[in-house]
Amino acid sequence: MEKGRELPVSFMPNSMEETTQEIECIITGRVQLVLYRDFVERRAHSLGLCGTVENLPDGSVRVVAQGSEDDLKKLIAQLRKGSLLSRVDDVAILWREPGAHRTDFVIRYPS
User: Fold this and answer.
1) C-alpha to C-alpha distance for 78 and 102, rounded to whole angstroms
2) What pTM did the predictor assign?
3) Residues near 42 by beta carbon (within 8 Å), at least 6 away in sequence
4) What is the domain extent for residue 53?
5) Where would I find the beta strands (DSSP E) of the chain?
6) What is the pLDDT of residue 11?
7) What dihedral angle (degrees, nearest 10) is formed by the CA atoms of 11, 14, 18, 21?
8) What is the CATH number of the domain that holds 40?
9) How many CB atoms lie within 10 A of CB 57?
10) Contact call for residues 26 and 1 (beta carbons, < 8 A)
11) Cα–Cα distance, 101 to 25 (Å, whole number)
12) Is 39 inside any structural domain?
């Protein structure tokens, strides 16, 4: 993924068509131990999105979300804003074909 840029893809829907899209985002900065995952989960639920949010070993956070293009763009704006205690340095975004169909948005915890 390229830092700070949304990567264009050929399957992005036109504005007349409402199809399910998927994004994978890697968020870097001070995003662990600051309620960032909870923040993302609440925002995703309010937008009706499905997916996951999880901490990564390198201190970043990974978000996979499915929904309409417009709602995913709204989530991306919130990811860049971050929670009250967080500091977001970068949001790397990958638009891709939806993988496994998700039915809820959940925080993933290490096993």
Assistant:
1) 21
2) 0.83
3) none
4) 21-25+33-108
5) 21-30, 50-55, 61-67, 87-96, 105-108
6) 41
7) 30
8) 3.30.70.100
9) 6
10) yes
11) 18
12) yes
So which residues are the catalytic ones? 37, 55
Q: Confidence band (pLDDT; 50, 70, 90) for 19? A: confident
pLDDT of residue 17: 41
Phi, psi (degrees; rounded to nearest 5) at 81: -70, -50
Q: Is residue 62 part of a domain?
A: yes
Domain annotation covers residue 102? yes
**CA 58 – CA 81 distance, rounded (Å):** 21
77: tokens are 């704006």
Backbone angles phi, psi at 71, to 5 degrees: -70, -35
**d(Cα 76, Cα 96) in Å, to the nearest integer?**
14
pLDDT at 40 over 50: yes
Number of domains in the chain: 1
Confidence of residue 15 (pLDDT cuts 50, 70, 90): very low
